[in-house]
Amino acid sequence: MRPSRRSLSVPCIALAALLPMLPAAALAKPEACLTSLEGFPTALAYDTGDEEVRANRSIRERWLGGYGRITCPGYVTLRAMTPGLNDRERSVFCLQFDREANTYTGFAEGKRDAYLHCAKPSGAFCEKVNASAETAGKVAGAAGKALNGVRAVENSAGAVVLSGTTGSVSAALSNLGATALATVTAPAALTAAAVTVVAVGGAVYVCSE
Length: 209
Known about the structure:
Elements: H1 5-18, H2 24-27, E1 30-37, E2 40-47, H3 51-55, H4 59-64, H5 74-81, E3 93-98, E4 103-109, E5 125-128, H6 133-140, E6 146-147, E7 150-151, E8 153-154, E9 160-165, H7 166-176, H8 188-191, E10 194-200, E11 203-208
Antiparallel strand pairs: 1-2, 3-4, 5-11, 6-7, 8-9, 9-10, 10-11
């Protein structure tokens, strides 16, 4: 005997009622996407049920998508650029985007726009330096202090930021016994007119033009 339509509909209705109660992780799907890093197409993937990705996607980005061939949400690209940081810690950074070349050139410390691009685009970029956790701790411990005219400011993400001329920031770090600038892998930061040093998540980042 074939089951009636009514008997078939009962489990379906029960399943439909349970769907809103399931956690987002249970309904998540892996999504492949494409970004561009310094002109090179880069394949990434993310969890469509990731609450942090959703929270960092504006309505504009959801509806209009990325630029050109870029299909990854900006937050997914930022995550790929800042491994080792958690979502709260990386909130201090924004994406540097070259509209003409349609590619991300790096990330910097600063406010974000609707796409997580830097609200005030510049030629600055940040990189993690080969500083020890002890150095990061010394910079973080300077929060609220003024050293050589440079104030160490702590933001809502718990990051401590020092900005100023390269000489003044370098002197401030020396007074702390921290040598972040001396361990920068890119010599351009040492010759830049101004730098920003960010201590977050037990790491040190140096941002320069």
